[in-house]
Amino acid sequence: MLHFVSKRLLCSFRPRTTRVKWSPALTALLQVHFQSTVAADNNNRTDIDHNRIKIHRSERLKPIVPNKDLVFGRIFTDHMLNIEWYKENGWHDPIIKPYDKICLEPSAMVFHYSFECFEGLKAYKDKNGKIRLFRPEMNMKRFQRSAARISLPSFNEKELFKCLKELVRLEERWIPAERGFSLYIRPTLIGTQESLGVGPTTRSLLFIICSPVGPYYKTGFNAIELLATTENVRAWPGGTGDVKVGGNYAPCVKPQIEAAEKGYQQNLWLFGEDDEITEVGTMNCFALLKNEQVTPPLDGSILAGVTRDCILYLARSWNEFKVSERKITMSEVKTAAEKGRLLEMFGSGTACIVSPIKGIHYRGLNIEVPLDSNNPSNQTGPITKRFADTLMGIQYGEIPHEWSVVLN
Amino acid sequence: MLHFVSKRLLCSFRPRTTRVKWSPALTALLQVHFQSTVAADNNNRTDIDHNRIKIHRSERLKPIVPNKDLVFGRIFTDHMLNIEWYKENGWHDPIIKPYDKICLEPSAMVFHYSFECFEGLKAYKDKNGKIRLFRPEMNMKRFQRSAARISLPSFNEKELFKCLKELVRLEERWIPAERGFSLYIRPTLIGTQESLGVGPTTRSLLFIICSPVGPYYKTGFNAIELLATTENVRAWPGGTGDVKVGGNYAPCVKPQIEAAEKGYQQNLWLFGEDDEITEVGTMNCFALLKNEQVTPPLDGSILAGVTRDCILYLARSWNEFKVSERKITMSEVKTAAEKGRLLEMFGSGTACIVSPIKGIHYRGLNIEVPLDSNNPSNQTGPITKRFADTLMGIQYGEIPHEWSVVLN
């Protein structure tokens, strides 16, 4: 914008203020001056700048939804954060405004070529009423990586995080003050250029919306049974399985429906000729063997989950069993189950923290996964529960830990 | 909608018209009656019905853009077709209305999980002023397959095609009457439910927009040089490489940019340890060897292109060389080039028909692909050109063929 203002100024100079004799040299000099001003200004405006945030408060606040009525990702707060990006001049001023529709031309690239990536993190209210976030810098970094993979613009993560905090502070009344409840925060970046040509977008919109959510399992843990998916593949080396781009998700629904139709709660993703385990539904996957905890390695085809990272860190700090990031095949799981060496299995993710697994249907076989041998009525194994309790304790500030960031 | 009306009717019955003694049995009876009415009605309304189309003509038609100013997918016509789908009652009435923005909640699933698939086909104006489409039934069928792969609703292809024709007829003035020019038609289906849960959408929007386009190469053919992509992989068996879903496209841009930065016009997609050729940019790929034309088989990881299918059909009907759908590796292409057995290579797609290839940069090697040995200044090999001329002849109705469908 200022680019054009300066150009106009330059043009208007010539006819009006000609007391000194106007020379081509002077024109050139002034042009250089203005161009460098413009460049500096563009540089200043290129990245997200929290100091330039504008806040338009909603005049009609919605009624808060009671905790018992919350369904994941269906209720949204009063405001949203919008930041537009243009190839010519970078990121525009961040705007917090009433939660409202996004209106785009039908040719907007996000509708055709999936220029879209997102993040998911939560804000918690602790016993002292303080707002806490959980390892938000990991989400900001991954958001950046996801954007880069699909050629969406990069941004200053720290400035974006400041804007995010501003929004969360404004929506404080929406953060449920009950253990197990939280405010789910969804930063999203979409390509909005009006063009059917396949190429990098010249225009983008970053927005953040917030949704109050309840515990994944309303009545405590419910161990799930999985159907191993053998027809479809979630991701592959050189693809996009390690980033949170929209394109990874819609194709997951078919195997999910197939699993549900056969009575399974989720599908288990496999890869390769030897049926390596990769993910479970939209979660990372862990197997606890005798003396070893195994999760697939970050080889480019699985998502680097924040919860996954926490579980590995906690397990290593406990130093009670071997902690491995390595390939694990269905054949190994099957044999371990047969020989009593499979102790527990679970999925991990931001939505559920951990999700205990009680069985896998795999190529006609039913593999039973133990839960709690001491208490068969329990819906979770003891280690799985320990991860859940520890992580929740940290998230709600009951266990002091640097992962939990208090919002100032 | 009617479902709710009936329910309301049912409720209002009870308090008001109680002359006969109201019994649970009567309630049940009435409920059955209303439910079956609703079911019948739902059945009637479930699919797309061209007879119910509503047309709202634009009051301010845009000026037609001169052919010379057309850029692919940037100019759009005056109207668009919209058909909404709801899980409860299926497809609503098709509506043709002025081309306008699509307004969705920021939580609409299309923005987060890439519930989006599309098609691309063209309308041509022949010498007699007749409008012609090219094998549109193939696009309708593939559109259906794409939708199914990402759990979007199915539809009656024939009824949708009737609606599409209605739109094209209305936009007749936008179809350029010049050989090489056409009206690009873009049917798109998106999931619009307002939910952050990953699962099948309960609400969708099918829309069709149209864009007048020029020839892919304004000054005749321009043979392209390719950079073989070895870091990223486009698709995988069990993935979505054989359907036109949005998620296949955004991740393609990074290798495209890498190719462009090194001076290549497109990237060549490879697969597997032996570097099989799969696609070129967003096109199918053909190699002409001595006595054999080779294109990768439809093994689930490449798109079943309409132009690809035409080329195979034409080549087989010519019966001059062997026509193979088989795996072809870079090593085979390299050896063939070295031994003078590589005659021509080209990409194929709706946008360009064919795109001649003059070279491939592959793992440090430059593989030269011959163009026309009789006329080195030509930008295309003779067989490549023959495919282009034949297909264009059919598309513009100069060569009579059942592929070209005159719009009545």
Automatic annotation (TrEMBL), chains A, B:
- Return one GO MF term: branched-chain-amino-acid transaminase activity
Note the Pfam families from the entry: Aminotran_4 (PF01063)
Sites of N6-(pyridoxal phosphate)lysine modification = 244
Q: What class of enzyme is it?
A: transferase
EC numbers listed for it are: 2.6.1.42
Matching InterPro entries: Aminotrans_IV, Aminotransferase-like, B_amino_transII, BCAT-like_C, BCAT-like_N, BCAT_family
Q: Any idea which UniProt keywords this protein has?
A: Amino-acid biosynthesis, Aminotransferase, Branched-chain amino acid biosynthesis, Pyridoxal phosphate, Transferase
Would you say which domain of life the source belongs to?
Eukaryota
Q: Give the protein's cofactors.
A: pyridoxal 5'-phosphate
- Supply one GO BP term: L-leucine biosynthetic process
GO CC, sorted alphabetically, is: mitochondrion
Give the record's family classification. Belongs to the class-IV pyridoxal-phosphate-dependent aminotransferase family.
Please state what the protein is called. branched-chain-amino-acid transaminase
The lineage, from the top, is: Eukaryota, Fungi, Fungi incertae sedis, Mucoromycota, Glomeromycotina
